[in-house]
């Protein structure tokens, strides 16, 4: 019997393993990465900051290519310059050579440079980022950069003083080549918590956070009240339950983006039938109010969300209602309790855990809202309906700023963690009931 | 509360169903109007219904391709997620292993993770693997949503299967895996099927990952594709309403056939029994 038990255990771990690996790889690891990214000035659209670098780096591909020309251009200048300039140029050349040989004294970097040199000669692109970048000592990188920049400036001055135009142009060219080379030395873009400091003072971040909270609280509150009312009303036997159930499930089942497109049409200021009737009944100031003003926009996204999820809420609460034994109501009838007392003394207390679980999932869903707003209002008008997820998405993918965008992602993550923590404390062990022995 | 339903109740019911269904009704009525009428009047019924919007919806944009993409991605995601989840939920509900509470806690936490918190690293991974604009590139991130969801729902179903059957299988000398395959799996089939429907719907509806990862029009899924019908210059409401009707029909059919199962799946995690 002992052996059998051991096998069972092993089988258990084996069966659970694929799920653990997947969850770690595609959920926990990315969240950690998001946090790590948020500590860098990391932008996909800027070649000097498109990698996360803890120390200074050299873009060897461009450096090797530029260095090849620096040497020949400087000796060229030496031949045509006059007087004191020759000495300055010679010194500049020696400085650069000095730095270059110090760089090449690292055998690994030297080997990389030779390989890159060969590839460049054959016009091969260098796609391997391990080959392309080399780590540098931070002080060396800074010294080399300053040296290159000051040489570039000197040459610029000489260009201004040169008496013939050809010579001036040569100076200019060399100066800009050397300046370009200095940008191949990439500084570390690790900036610690500076991004966080920036966003904690960012008005748009606080605005989007408050938009998200208004949206979450308003939509979840309406959904709960309406959902509970509907659940109480249909908690009885009647014919046609199937039709009601199906009609309630369809808004829940269609993609949010499709629902948002439908509401975009119905609420539109010119062609929208709901905007038209609301205006006729004097519920709104004019028919374009719904989608082109800030309060109208907020109303519209809450309205669309309530339409889509109230039925779902009603279903969850109905299932909870059906577990309350009828005998409780019969007994309280005998005791002379009225409907009101029954609701507050029997229904609500017994429904508490169902309500809390439904609220937990709904609050989190509403707080993460993205597609509804993105499709219906696009965060507009003038960012009045922009949720924190939308702001994060825009920063990440429209501005290609993965460092700052990740800060916003981490803020969403922390807010969601806090909300779940509060709910889980309220619900307690009920959440796991019926899952583990 | 088995009260008898009166006339007033049915009137309420009809109004409720009408309000919930109104957007669909109006969008359907719009989709059969001639395009000119959409922009000029709010009449409910058109006198000369036409299918021109439907023809435009499938020719101006690759709507059928979007549906194929969504179908393939959602099906593959569902099979993989429910497969992994069936093993994990069996282990966690019925086998003597340690750390069950921790595992379920992590799974619940993972199901609560906002997608926007994982999107940029996942985008980097998928780009590095060269999987942008492909089905695999979407199935990978979809697992972040569907796997926790499947484990969460399936574990309630597994828990409900009586333990006596397993005990007697053990006594008859069945190995643990045989017990799983021959006894538990057949009994859990309805639950697995229910879970699969819910996971399929969740994958079908996903927007953020699909928008970011498959940016090429032929690889777009239904939700993203539909939202791209509006251009900067014009909003072709005729095409949009026809496209909406076309993509809603499969879901309506799915819901009509499986409504009981969907409800049982949705409520299994939230109600103590």
Question: How would you portray this structure in words?
Answer:
The complex is a heterodimer of chains A (437) and B (273). Chain A is mostly helical and 437 residues long. Chain A has three domains: 2-34; 57-186, Four Helix Bundle (Hemerythrin (Met), subunit A) (Up-down Bundle), CATH 1.20.120; 197-432, MetI-like fold (Orthogonal Bundle), CATH 1.10.3720.10. Helix content of chain A is 74%, strand content 2%. Chain A has helices at 2-37, 60-80, 84-104, 107-121, 129-132, 138-161, 165-182, 194-200, 203-234, 241-253, 256-266, 273-280, 289-292, 294-321, 326-334, 339-367, 371-376, 388-398, 402-427, and strands spanning 57-59, 133-135, 185-186. The longest helix of chain A has 36 residues, at 2-37. The relative contact order of chain A is 0.10. The mean pLDDT of chain A is 85. By secondary structure, chain B is mainly alpha-helical. Chain B has two domains: 1-61 and 232-253, no CATH class; 64-228, MetI-like fold. Chain B is built from twelve helices and no strands. Chain B starts with 6 loop residues before the first helix and ends in a 5-residue tail after the last helix. Chains A and B meet through helix 1, helix 9, helix 10, helix 11 and helix 14 of A and helix 1, helix 4, helix 5, helix 6 and helix 7 of B. Chain A: Residues 209-423 form the ABC transmembrane type-1 domain. Chain A: It is found in: Cell membrane. Chain A: This is Trehalose transport system permease protein SugA. Chain A: One of its GO terms (cellular component) is plasma membrane. Chain A: It holds the Pfam family BPD_transp_1.
